[in-house]
Specification:
The chain is an alpha+beta fold. The chain has helices at about 15-30, 35-55, 105-115, and strands spanning about 1-10, 65-75, 75-85, 115-120, 130-135.
Length: about 140
């Protein structure tokens, strides 16, 4: 199953993004996983990605759309977040140092810790968008007798 949401670059739409994710997961995987636990993990990764696009890639440009694609195959989940921003050069990323306070840099760390695979592609040659791809496997719920 594959579904897509196109939404304005504005944090006021964050609850729409979260609800879309929850409703889609409930419809597709239902009771086969611990939905609340897995939703919290996926929600946090998606919230980080969405807010980074709004605050950095599309800064002060709420007219630019963000496209979010969710693909579920059995218990494998892939989220793609597409934006029209300048892009982020991963070679300049420095992970946060607990001894040195900093404002930025935590989103990438959170996403890579929560997901099994995180991939970022700068400016697709077809339509000029950047794509962040988040992948994970949702463990099936273990039922006790």
């Amino acid at each position: 199953m594959k579904t897509e949401l196109q939404i304005p670059s504005d944090l006021k739409f964050l609850s729409v993004v979260e609800n879309w994710l929850l409703v889609t997961l409930q419809a597709e995987v239902g009771e086969s996983i611990d939905l609340q636990k897995q939703f919290r993990r996926l929600r946090l990764a998606l919230v980080e990605a969405f807010s980074n696009v709004v605050r950095h890639a599309h800064r002060d440009q709420p007219n630019l759309p963000i496209s979010i694609c969710l693909e579920i195959k059995d218990t494998d989940v892939a989220l793609q977040i597409w934006d029209y921003g300048k892009g982020f050069d991963l070679s300049t990323y420095l992970p946060p140092n607990p001894d040195v306070p900093q404002e930025n840099g935590y989103g990438w760390l959170i996403m890579t810790r929560l997901m099994d695979r995180v991939e970022y592609r700068l400016q697709d040659t077809v339509d000029g968008r950047n794509c962040l791809r988040l992948e994970t496997h949702l463990p099936k719920e273990q039922k006790t007798p």
